[in-house]
Specification:
Blueprint (H helix, E strand, L loop, with lengths): L2 E2 L1 H5 L5 E6 L6 E6 L8 E8 L1 E6 L2 E6 L3 E4 L5 E5 L5 E7 L10 H4 L3 H5 L3 H14 L4 H13 L3 H14 L2 H8 L10 H8 L1
Antiparallel strand pairs: 1-2, 2-9, 3-8, 4-7, 4-9, 5-6, 5-8
Helix pairs in contact: 4-5, 5-6
């Protein structure tokens, strides 16, 4: 499911906005988010072309071209294309909070390689992305995970430290992420997650 990272491309900082598309009817256009997903913010979807069916908290919503579909925060959501060439525009934010860009748009193209276990390749590519986009702690954290998985412990600890310094969210993530298991016995790792 191709995405067009509009927010990142236009350097929008007030809200998230991405266009999602698929060439084939039956394909998932909007991946499932559930209530435990920290990225399951408030989202407004606009079907720009084609036809989709949304499932919002188990409710089925038919969405032909021009339909707006709203998903409140912490609700499950999923959209499947019913026509070839379906395009959906997604706008997102967190009620009551300033928008915080996570940089997932840069991570998304690497996710399939990561899921396939190509950790060294992903780490090499992420190093370039992090150097060009140092404002995203999530990229530092994902880089640390990949480096840990391919035995680059020193680099992984440095990048994990940087992610945690930028956002406390990643200290908690480090406590539970199995990608970091190979370095759990390192004293420096123990110190990073214990604060």
């Amino acid at each position: 499911m191709p995405n067009r990272p509009i927010r990142h491309h236009l350097d929008i900082t007030a809200f998230g906005v991405t266009a999602w598309s698929t060439d084939t009817a039956g394909d998932v256009v909007i991946n499932e988010h559930d209530e435990d997903d920290p990225t399951a913010d408030e989202e407004l979807f606009l079907v720009l072309r084609g036809h989709a069916v949304f499932e919002i908290e188990g409710d089925r919503v038919e969405a032909p071209t021009g339909t707006l579909v709203f998903a409140p925060p912490s609700t499950s959501r999923l959209a499947t294309a019913m026509e070839d060439g379906t395009i959906i525009l997604a706008l997102e934010g967190t009620p009551g909070n300033a928008y915080e860009a996570r940089g997932w748009e840069l991570w998304a193209p690497l996710a399939p390689l990561y899921q396939a276990g190509a950790y060294a390749e992903v780490a090499d590519r992420l190093e370039t992305l992090v150097a060009a986009n140092p404002q995203y702690p999530m990229l530092f954290f994902n880089l640390a995970c990949c480096e840990c998985q391919c035995g680059r412990t020193s680099e992984a600890l440095d990048h994990l430290r940087h992610a945690i310094e930028m956002s406390e969210e990643f200290r908690e993530s480090a406590r539970n992420d199995s990608d970091l298991d190979p370095m759990r016995d390192e004293q420096e790792f123990k110190q990073l997650i214990s604060r």
